[in-house]
Amino acid sequence: MGAEPGGYIRQMETLIGNEGLSNQFELVGAGISGNKVTDLYLRLERDVLSKQPDIVVIYVGINDVWHKRLAGTGTDYVKYTEFYDAIVKKLQAAGAKVVVCTPSVIGERKDNSNEQDGELNMYSNWLRQYAKDKQLPCVDLRTEFQNYLIANNPANAEKGLLTTDRVHLNAAGNQFVAKAMWKTVKTVQ
Amino acid sequence: MGAEPGGYIRQMETLIGNEGLSNQFELVGAGISGNKVTDLYLRLERDVLSKQPDIVVIYVGINDVWHKRLAGTGTDYVKYTEFYDAIVKKLQAAGAKVVVCTPSVIGERKDNSNEQDGELNMYSNWLRQYAKDKQLPCVDLRTEFQNYLIANNPANAEKGLLTTDRVHLNAAGNQFVAKAMWKTVKTVQ
Amino acid sequence: MGAEPGGYIRQMETLIGNEGLSNQFELVGAGISGNKVTDLYLRLERDVLSKQPDIVVIYVGINDVWHKRLAGTGTDYVKYTEFYDAIVKKLQAAGAKVVVCTPSVIGERKDNSNEQDGELNMYSNWLRQYAKDKQLPCVDLRTEFQNYLIANNPANAEKGLLTTDRVHLNAAGNQFVAKAMWKTVKTVQ
Amino acid sequence: MGAEPGGYIRQMETLIGNEGLSNQFELVGAGISGNKVTDLYLRLERDVLSKQPDIVVIYVGINDVWHKRLAGTGTDYVKYTEFYDAIVKKLQAAGAKVVVCTPSVIGERKDNSNEQDGELNMYSNWLRQYAKDKQLPCVDLRTEFQNYLIANNPANAEKGLLTTDRVHLNAAGNQFVAKAMWKTVKTVQ
């Protein structure tokens, strides 16, 4: 959905255009709805490496956690870290610069009382540490979303601020992600 | 386990004795390992009302959340609140004073990064509000555990401080719960 | 849904009328969507015993199994049997005759290759044995559905024969259940 | 465990030796406890292709189903088929002959009343059809186990005949798998 009209990839293009940098960046969406880290690994050559990207922003984790509850088919924490690391190594071996993202939200309550906040925090802790250890830039969407919701969700609503349904981004959410990603991507040398 | 030697019920008896109040309190454990709120409702007459208690401390919720992940047989949030309220009404109709407890922990990490912290927070939020609305005393074990762990768990270990295995209380944990419960129970008029 | 127009309770009334027995039977639906055996126990007095029924047909089990996968909140096998038995005892103590039903299907494939066939068979085995031990009539919907599907589902479709969506009955399914229930209910002395 | 002393790989070696064919076969175990189809794909080059095998017996599926219930981290049916097919294609591209196996059991009850029989049947149906379509030999362990249990499990026990604990093979189970695999492997040209 990020690559569709109004999606955060399309909104990043607008931000890039506003800064007069359109001729320096070509944004290509490779996300597929419902994908987990294992799926990214399966189609890495075909859908990403084949395009010889300079920079790859990896944004995966929501479904890895969410599907544990939704269908019994989420990704074990340890397996998540193994597949993630395998993807980063393949990307780097191909000469791409990698940008890490933490998973934003499954539910917008601001006090860690959304059903799967524990796991999102757990996976995000690993991603932050991994990015630090590997000296990779990290778009910390989880922290940015949480800070935004603490400031802007007085009723502690579980959806409707940055998502339509607890998970999928609404217009404001796409704008929010676009800004956060661009802020980091523009610093990649 | 709370009613076994070293368990929090036995440790409360010691605290009561220390204050010279042993002749005013008789503590009876009615908990059964693995029970959820539905189980308490099923055996309320037989195991609790039959003893004509003056005060009933309800401490249930860990298994209701934990078994969602462990066995696919946890308790829906809405059903939890319905059964809980039905238990309280039956107890009050029988003349017992009710003390509410929030569920402590499934994992001792201090930063809400234990797998099921989100749901424990969610169920605890409801219990706190319910106690307030019904003017019932509340032993807020979840908040007390979290505050203790923030102060005493610098390595962010997931077990070993107040539990043996993320869930079951060790000696310090039993002591901690005994103190917290007694502090509230002694105020019940 | 069984009590709505076209539902199996309404269709049983037609079958009863066809046999000229309408003045001997009054059918009252007490089912609520999404209920499990624990929910039936919770509202037994209010919704069933209060009506002083002569005969009670208990049809529960689909959600107890289905919700394990759907939401992590199904009913443990042993707890299912405990609550079921508690319900039967309360009904019999109130003078009602009890009719047992096995759960029909979650998916209509005929070769035990629907996701939760194993558990439906497991719970049904218990119900059949329980009915036998307690000398209660049993509407063995599971066996009747399976036999029907073996005979009528050559493409091994997972829905569309007796259900709309693997679980909820279509018109033919409601007719099928009505016939099966009536066949047994009419024999209750 | 299949590669340890007494495991089915070691027992196949004995069968091969009994037929005087030890100089024609070298058996190498590459299984890792708890692995699912995604894990096999992740380490295919390192642990299998690097050894330039002539024949590869793929036996995966138990954990893909079991972990849905055990940890919420099983493998979606469609993803199972995608990763499986990707593995077969890589093996064939490397010149290896592939042997398919259906997953045996999670529980030894003979009447499809083990908790996850539905899913094991579902995944096995796909594997049988896939092997047929691709003209690959198939060790149909599921059918062989089921036939054995129908003949030899009169008490409908859930463990103890071919497994120790519903899943892991006992001595008889290892012998049973060894015979079934060898019967097929010896026919591979």
> Helix share of residues of chain A?
40-55%
User: How would you spell out the order of helices and strands of chain A?
Assistant: HHHEHHEHEHH
The radius of gyration over CA of chain A amounts to 16 Å
How many helices of chain A? The count is: 8
* Greatest chain-chain contact: A-B, 18 and 18 residues
Strand content of chain A: 5-15%
- Main β sheet profile of chain A: 3 strands, parallel
Query: How far is it from the N-terminal to the C-terminal residue of chain A, by CA?
Result: 27 Å
How many strands in all of chain A? Answer: 3
Compute the average pLDDT of chain A: 97
Overall 3D form of chain A: globular
In which order are the strands of the major sheet of chain A placed?
A: 1-2-3
The low-pLDDT segments of chain A are: none
Structural class of chain A: mainly alpha
Oligomer: homotetramer
How would you briefly describe this protein structure?
Chain A has 189 residues and is mostly helical. The first copy, chain A, has helices at 8-18, 37-42, 44-47, 62-70, 77-93, 117-133, 141-152, 171-185; strands at 55-58, 97-101, 138-139.
Report on the structure:
The structure is a homotetramer of 189-residue chains. With 189 residues, the first copy, chain A, is mainly alpha-helical. Chain A has helices spanning 8-18, 37-42, 44-47, 62-70, 77-93, 117-133, 141-152, 171-185; strands at residues 55-58, 97-101, 138-139. In chain A, 48% of the residues lie in helices and 6% in strands. The two termini of chain A are 27 Å apart. In chain A, α6 (117-133) links the parallel β2 (97-101) and β3. In chain A, 42% of the residues are buried. The first copy, chain A, contains eight helices and three strands; from the N terminus they run αααβααβαβαα. The radius of gyration of chain A is 16 Å and the shape is globular. In chain A, strands 1-2-3 form a three-stranded parallel sheet. Chains in contact: A-B, A-C, A-D, B-C, B-D, C-D. Chain B binds chain C through residues 38-39, 41-42, 67-69, 71-76, 79, 82-83, 86, and chain C through 38-39, 41-42, 67-69, 71-76, 79, 82-83, 86.
